[in-house]
Amino acid sequence: MSAQSKKRTVVENGDGGIDMALAASIANSEDLGPIIRHTFETGKPEALLHHLRNIVKKKEVEIEELCKLHYEEFILAVDELRGVLVDADELKGMLSTENFRLQEVASDLLLKIEELLELYSIKKNVTEATQTLKICIQVSNLCITCNRHVSEGRFYPALKTLDLIEKDYLHSIPMKAFRKVIEKQIPTMKLYIEKKVCSEFNNWLVHIRSTARQIGQLAIGQAAAARQRDEEMRARQREAEEQSRSVVSDCVYTLHTENSDEDSVLEFDLTPVYRAYHIHTCLGIGEKFREYYYKNRLMQLNLDLQISTAQPFLESHQPFFAQIAGFFIVEDRVLRTAGGLLLESQVETIWETAIGKMTSILEEQFARMDTASHLLLIKDFVTLLGATLTRYGYRVTSLLEILDNSRDKYHDLLLSDALLFFRARCLSNRAVLH
């Protein structure tokens, strides 16, 4: 209801209407502001107060009547509430007593639980420490094993041990300081092993160059012995054929030849080469060692191909060619047994270099020769050199061509020597006659 409608209702109904309007508004929980404002505007606030008192009296009467109807139930509810309060006090006391007893009983238990938790923490720490020490002890034992292998010169087992530490144990080491020490030492140890095998290989380079001449001389000696046996066998065959023609046909002659022992095997140690190459391969730098080997051997060959100027070629040619023969016998063995250290193309390259240098030297020296016997001596040794290296698969066509080309030179020197000999004999005979 709006304020204007309420005003009209109050005006139309008079004092009795105000009483009813107030009662209705209060019952409906409506706003009493318009009624109060209208009352003060009309100058009758006392009437409003009177009506309000009447309404209060009516409500009090209603409340009193309502209480008279339900007072017994209210008293019972209050009594029940008091009983609940007593029960609550008793329950509170019981709870307090039980709580006190529980605290007494649980205090020791709490102490035990705290001790148990502390023991669990200690156990966890001890377990972690034990595992840490176990791993560290295993790594330390592997390090000791690696050091022992290195001190004994067993580099491959040492590298395998280092790989085992690096792949299986390094990342699981819980102690950071210890792990850093191991991480730092592994490359250092690998570098030490590399330097050690390189040092052994360098010593082998020096040794094999000093023994290459002996190897070459032995191989050339074997070729000379084989040629001698062939010549003796052919001579015996011719002798047997002549004897068979001079006797009756029903006689049978048998040619007995001695079974010559096989050529002794040329022995030289390639173990440092095999080991150095294998260790470098395990370190992942096999190509580096292949280049290092080829470079150093090529340098040695270039030194070997320099003829001595301190003595005549007639005196130095045998050591010179024996040194080269020994060099290429070693290279052939390395090519066949070192598992890819040398390529066949590399050996062919250095052989072409060597044979080119040897043919050049022979051409120059043959041009300087003035004695047929000297020329024949050198040609014979070069022939044995060619036969020796042919057995190892090297092509010596260029050397043989040089020997063939020197045939005219040999004939000229032989003729010159014969003329000198004839003149000398003539002069000696003439001196005797006079």
UniProtKB/TrEMBL annotation:
<feature type="domain" description="Exocyst complex component EXOC6/Sec15 N-terminal">
    <location>
        <begin position="51"/>
        <end position="220"/>
    </location>
</feature>
<dbReference type="GO" id="GO:0016020">
    <property type="term" value="C:membrane"/>
</dbReference>
<protein>
    <submittedName>
        <fullName>Exocyst complex component SEC15A</fullName>
    </submittedName>
</protein>
<dbReference type="GO" id="GO:0090522">
    <property type="term" value="P:vesicle tethering involved in exocytosis"/>
</dbReference>
<dbReference type="GO" id="GO:0006886">
    <property type="term" value="P:intracellular protein transport"/>
</dbReference>
<dbReference type="InterPro" id="IPR048359">
    <property type="entry name" value="EXOC6_Sec15_N"/>
</dbReference>
<dbReference type="InterPro" id="IPR007225">
    <property type="entry name" value="EXOC6/Sec15"/>
</dbReference>
<dbReference type="Pfam" id="PF20651">
    <property type="entry name" value="EXOC6_Sec15_N"/>
</dbReference>
<dbReference type="GO" id="GO:0000145">
    <property type="term" value="C:exocyst"/>
</dbReference>
<dbReference type="GO" id="GO:0006893">
    <property type="term" value="P:Golgi to plasma membrane transport"/>
</dbReference>
